[in-house]
Write a structure and sequence with these properties.
about 30% helix, six-stranded mixed sheet, 6 helices, three-stranded antiparallel sheet
Length: about 220
């Protein structure tokens, strides 16, 4: 049986994700605006930060427990992931995992803490919502940010992280609203336009709004 998912109506010109078909697993990323400059100290940081961070994990669990989500706190894990390039962090609700970019070490403990709370807000918002599908940076996430002490947090930040450009070779279109959805990779699952599903089917997946491939520029 195909896993049914929905996608956002609007997209930013960023490298937040290359495919919405993983959005049920990865619910949020903290983005950084482009700057290709990298330093020798950054290289050292990349080598010294890898794998699980048990201290940050303990901190995350304490924060979530204080906010009335001890069950989520018991499950959460925090790691440093060198595969993250242009984003500072990523939240995977399915695995209750927060991944942080090792380059954050160049910007001090305050930025690490802020990014950790940004990603925890994604997990906390989804935990509170249960099975209900949320916008990645919607009102529920903003409320979770306020509860986590980063009420002024924004979707994008300005840390000098490099951007990894990927050509979006696949163009999909909603058959109802006719909006375009560009993707770097072919969508392998049944995905529908979230805005149309919300407007016409109370947010539930509806095959009437399943995205259709209209353009493919070379390769699969």
């Amino acid at each position: 049986m195909l896993l049914l998912e929905q996608v956002e109506l609007t997209f930013e010109r960023s490298t937040i994700a290359t495919s919405r078909d993983v959005a049920s697993k990865i619910v949020g990323q903290a983005l950084r605006l482009p700057n290709p400059a990298e330093t020798a100290t950054g290289a050292v940081a990349l080598q010294s930060r890898a794998g699980h961070d048990f201290e940050l994990e303990r901190k995350a669990r304490e924060i979530l427990t204080l906010l009335g989500a001890p069950r989520l706190g018991r499950l959460v894990h925090v790691e440093w992931n060198s595969r993250l390039k242009s984003c500072a962090g990523r939240a995977d609700y399915r695995n209750k995992l927060v991944s942080l970019n090792p380059r954050l070490a160049q910007h001090g403990e305050a930025e690490i803490d802020r990014t950790l709370r940004h990603e925890l807000a994604h997990l906390l918002a989804q935990f509170r919502a249960g099975r209900r599908r949320l916008l990645p940076h919607g009102s529920e996430w903003r409320q979770a940010c306020r509860d986590l002490g980063v009420g002024d947090e924004r979707r994008c930040h300005n840390l000098p992280f490099p951007i990894a450009e990927r050509a979006r070779r696949f163009l999909y279109k909603c058959p109802n609203c006719r909006r375009d959805f560009a993707r770097a990779r072919r969508i392998r699952r049944a995905i529908a336009c979230l805005a149309c599903c919300r407007a016409h089917n109370r947010g539930e997946f509806d095959t009437r709004f399943r995205l259709q491939l209209v353009t493919c520029s070379g390769g699969l």
